[in-house]
């Protein structure tokens, strides 16, 4: 009998969905918008994360060594720094490479190149470029450099300068931006999700409100609460599934045509930040996860809304 | 079969819908309950359906206090009672066949039983030719006959009808009353509330007359006296 009832509940749900055409279409439209908002928040988070990652990659510390420091000492020091858990990457630029890069950078500036020739020998320092795993960790790396300066065998310091202090203000500001962006994004996400859920829930509740008389008749005929609730939950699941499919389909052209407009985020709009992320590519490469999130939210929203809305009218 | 023991129903505003009502209905009886609007007729039917609970007193069905029934048992109890309402209360998105079949589904009948019994019952109320019509495609008399078919399809012990002819023309009223008589002749207890003097005088069965929540007359072969 259990499977017979399951079959009847599903059949009744499908028939109700079909016969309540107008209400079904209206509910699906509202739920599609809700799920579109949920999906947009996934993209919004991806964009924000990508923007923050781009910015983080721009931040580093450069340690400049005096011109007499030996390459062997610098490479040993590099290995020490690489062993720190906070450090993601350490790049070494030798004096010769620094000179080549300097000349390439100023190839159009004859005055500087002429001055360089007049100096005769290479005046540039070798350097280490340090990237931390998180911008907030540069402070501890800088502290280490300050407390354990690289010394020659004669006891003279081999480090000429560390540019952390010059970059500190920018790094601190970046940390603040990242932190506040994450918090405000979380708050925005929660508010939007709650507002969308409330709208979708009320739409389904309204759809069920018009059937409250039917529910009381079913109760008086002797139907159990589960048997009455079943078809409504099936209808809710169908609303959720169809709405999710519509939202998923809608994202395809929208991310393709309008994706470039959304990046970089206006708050990070600077010449240096060049996006690696294209929304359309992000959508295609993460299609399964995004589709699962939207379909999952749709099914949960449809079923939960129906369950709660019917419960109110079952108290006969 | 049904026993009301000093039943009082008082609402929050102190209105008394029923005031110390006591009566018994025997199996296979045909009982009409009459009275002005607000006399308490519908409240009695709601008590029997366990839609309302008494403020004091008890309602027994076959010696069981129905307001003590657990929710699961209440569903089974309600399946023993067929109900017909003045406003028909059909499920608007279900066809004639589906409206009647629904009552059989909830009673746990198989698809085969439903396929064979529903057309048969609809034939009994002369609606065999409208199996696949929706309620909005039926006349008031036809809707009421669908409601009766739904009420009797599970062969209930009791059929209760709340002003079943209130929205019907005289010809449909007569047809519906004939159907009730036939159902009662087949052994089902029928409890009917009505304002229709013609119906009561035609039936010549037991009449309980109510006023302001109290029973003021209970006549075995009564007439409509108000």
TrEMBL record, chain A:
<feature type="transmembrane region" description="Helical">
    <location>
        <begin position="190"/>
        <end position="211"/>
    </location>
</feature>
<feature type="transmembrane region" description="Helical">
    <location>
        <begin position="287"/>
        <end position="310"/>
    </location>
</feature>
<dbReference type="GO" id="GO:0051301">
    <property type="term" value="P:cell division"/>
</dbReference>
<comment type="similarity">
    <text>Belongs to the ABC-4 integral membrane protein family. FtsX subfamily.</text>
</comment>
<dbReference type="InterPro" id="IPR004513">
    <property type="entry name" value="FtsX"/>
</dbReference>
<keyword id="KW-0132">Cell division</keyword>
<dbReference type="Pfam" id="PF02687">
    <property type="entry name" value="FtsX"/>
</dbReference>
<feature type="transmembrane region" description="Helical">
    <location>
        <begin position="21"/>
        <end position="43"/>
    </location>
</feature>
<protein>
    <recommendedName>
        <fullName>Cell division protein FtsX</fullName>
    </recommendedName>
</protein>
<keyword id="KW-1003">Cell membrane</keyword>
<dbReference type="GO" id="GO:0005886">
    <property type="term" value="C:plasma membrane"/>
</dbReference>
<dbReference type="Pfam" id="PF18075">
    <property type="entry name" value="FtsX_ECD"/>
</dbReference>
<keyword id="KW-0812">Transmembrane</keyword>
<feature type="domain" description="FtsX extracellular">
    <location>
        <begin position="59"/>
        <end position="149"/>
    </location>
</feature>
<dbReference type="InterPro" id="IPR040690">
    <property type="entry name" value="FtsX_ECD"/>
</dbReference>
<keyword id="KW-0472">Membrane</keyword>
<dbReference type="InterPro" id="IPR003838">
    <property type="entry name" value="ABC3_permease_C"/>
</dbReference>
<keyword id="KW-1133">Transmembrane helix</keyword>
<feature type="transmembrane region" description="Helical">
    <location>
        <begin position="232"/>
        <end position="258"/>
    </location>
</feature>
<keyword id="KW-0131">Cell cycle</keyword>
<feature type="domain" description="ABC3 transporter permease C-terminal">
    <location>
        <begin position="190"/>
        <end position="315"/>
    </location>
</feature>
TrEMBL record, chain B:
<protein>
    <recommendedName>
        <fullName>Cell division ATP-binding protein FtsE</fullName>
    </recommendedName>
</protein>
<keyword id="KW-1003">Cell membrane</keyword>
<dbReference type="InterPro" id="IPR027417">
    <property type="entry name" value="P-loop_NTPase"/>
</dbReference>
<keyword id="KW-0132">Cell division</keyword>
<keyword id="KW-0067">ATP-binding</keyword>
<dbReference type="GO" id="GO:0016887">
    <property type="term" value="F:ATP hydrolysis activity"/>
</dbReference>
<dbReference type="InterPro" id="IPR003439">
    <property type="entry name" value="ABC_transporter-like_ATP-bd"/>
</dbReference>
<keyword id="KW-0547">Nucleotide-binding</keyword>
<dbReference type="GO" id="GO:0005886">
    <property type="term" value="C:plasma membrane"/>
</dbReference>
<dbReference type="GO" id="GO:0051301">
    <property type="term" value="P:cell division"/>
</dbReference>
<dbReference type="InterPro" id="IPR005286">
    <property type="entry name" value="Cell_div_FtsE"/>
</dbReference>
<comment type="similarity">
    <text>Belongs to the ABC transporter superfamily.</text>
</comment>
<comment type="subunit">
    <text>Homodimer. Forms a membrane-associated complex with FtsX.</text>
</comment>
<feature type="domain" description="ABC transporter">
    <location>
        <begin position="2"/>
        <end position="226"/>
    </location>
</feature>
<dbReference type="GO" id="GO:0005524">
    <property type="term" value="F:ATP binding"/>
</dbReference>
<comment type="function">
    <text>Part of the ABC transporter FtsEX involved in cellular division.</text>
</comment>
<dbReference type="InterPro" id="IPR017871">
    <property type="entry name" value="ABC_transporter-like_CS"/>
</dbReference>
<dbReference type="InterPro" id="IPR003593">
    <property type="entry name" value="AAA+_ATPase"/>
</dbReference>
<dbReference type="GO" id="GO:0022857">
    <property type="term" value="F:transmembrane transporter activity"/>
</dbReference>
<dbReference type="InterPro" id="IPR015854">
    <property type="entry name" value="ABC_transpr_LolD-like"/>
</dbReference>
<keyword id="KW-0472">Membrane</keyword>
<dbReference type="Pfam" id="PF00005">
    <property type="entry name" value="ABC_tran"/>
</dbReference>
């Amino acid at each position: 009998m259990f499977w017979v009832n399951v079959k009847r509940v599903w059949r009744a749900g499908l028939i109700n969905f079909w016969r309540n055409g107008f209400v079904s279409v209206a509910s699906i439209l509202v739920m599609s918008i809700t799920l579109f908002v949920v999906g947009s928040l996934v993209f919004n988070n991806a964009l924000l994360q990508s923007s923050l990652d781009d910015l983080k990659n721009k931040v580093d510390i450069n340690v400049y060594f005096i011109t007499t420091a030996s390459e062997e000492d610098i490479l040993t020091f590099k290995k020490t720094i690489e062993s720190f858990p906070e450090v993601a990457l350490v790049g070494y630029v030798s004096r010769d490479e620094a000179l080549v890069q300097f000349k390439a950078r100023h190839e159009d500036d004859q005055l500087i190149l002429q001055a360089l020739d007049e100096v005769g020998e290479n005046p540039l320092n070798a350097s280490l470029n340090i990237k931390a795993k998180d911008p907030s960790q540069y402070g501890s790396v800088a502290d280490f450099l300050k407390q354990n300066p690289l010394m020659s065998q004669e006891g003279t310091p081999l480090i000429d300068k560390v540019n952390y202090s010059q970059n500190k203000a920018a790094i601190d500001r970046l940390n603040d931006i990242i932190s506040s962006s994450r918090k405000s994004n979380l708050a925005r996400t929660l508010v939007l999700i709650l507002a969308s859920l409330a709208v979708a829930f009320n739409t389904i509740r309204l759809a069920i409100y018009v059937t409250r008389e039917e529910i009381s008749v079913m109760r008086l005929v002797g139907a159990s609460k589960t048997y009455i609730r079943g078809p409504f939950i099936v209808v809710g699941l169908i609303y959720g599934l169809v709405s999710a499919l519509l939202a998923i389909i809608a994202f395809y052209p929208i991310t393709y045509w309008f994706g470039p407009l959304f990046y970089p985020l206006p708050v990070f709009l600077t010449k240096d930040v060049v996006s690696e992320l294209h929304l359309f590519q992000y959508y295609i490469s993460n299609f399964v996860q995004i589709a699962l999130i939207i379909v999952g939210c749709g099914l949960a929203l449809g079923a939960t809304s129906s369950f709660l809305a019917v419960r109110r009218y079952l108290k006969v | 079969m049904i026993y009301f023991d000093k039943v009082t129903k008082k609402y929050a505003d102190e209105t008394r819908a029923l005031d110390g009502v006591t009566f018994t209905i025997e199996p296979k009886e045909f009982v009409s309950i009459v009275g002005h609007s607000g006399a308490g007729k519908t409240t009695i039917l709601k008590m029997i359906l366990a839609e309302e609970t008494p403020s004091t007193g008890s309602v027994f069905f076959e010696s069981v206090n129905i307001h003590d029934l657990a929710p699961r048992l209440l569903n089974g109890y309600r399946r023993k009672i067929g109900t017909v309402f003045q406003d028909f209360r059909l499920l608007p998105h279900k066809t004639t066949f589906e409206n009647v079949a629904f009552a059989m589904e909830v009673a746990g009948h198989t698809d085969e039983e439903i396929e064979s019994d529903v057309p048969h019952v609809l034939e009994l109320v002369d609606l065999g030719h409208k199996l696949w019509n929706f309620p909005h495609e039926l006349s008031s008399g036809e809707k009421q006959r669908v409601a009766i078919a739904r009420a009797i399809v599970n062969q209930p012990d009791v059929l209760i009808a709340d002003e079943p002819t209130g929205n019907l023309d005289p010809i449909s009223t007569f047809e519906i009353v004939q159907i009730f008589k036939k159902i009662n002749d087949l052994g089902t207890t029928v409890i009917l509330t009505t304002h229709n003097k013609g119906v009561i005088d035609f039936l010549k069965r037991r009449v309980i007359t109510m006023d302001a929540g109290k029973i003021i007359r209970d006549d075995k072969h009564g007439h409509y006296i108000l």
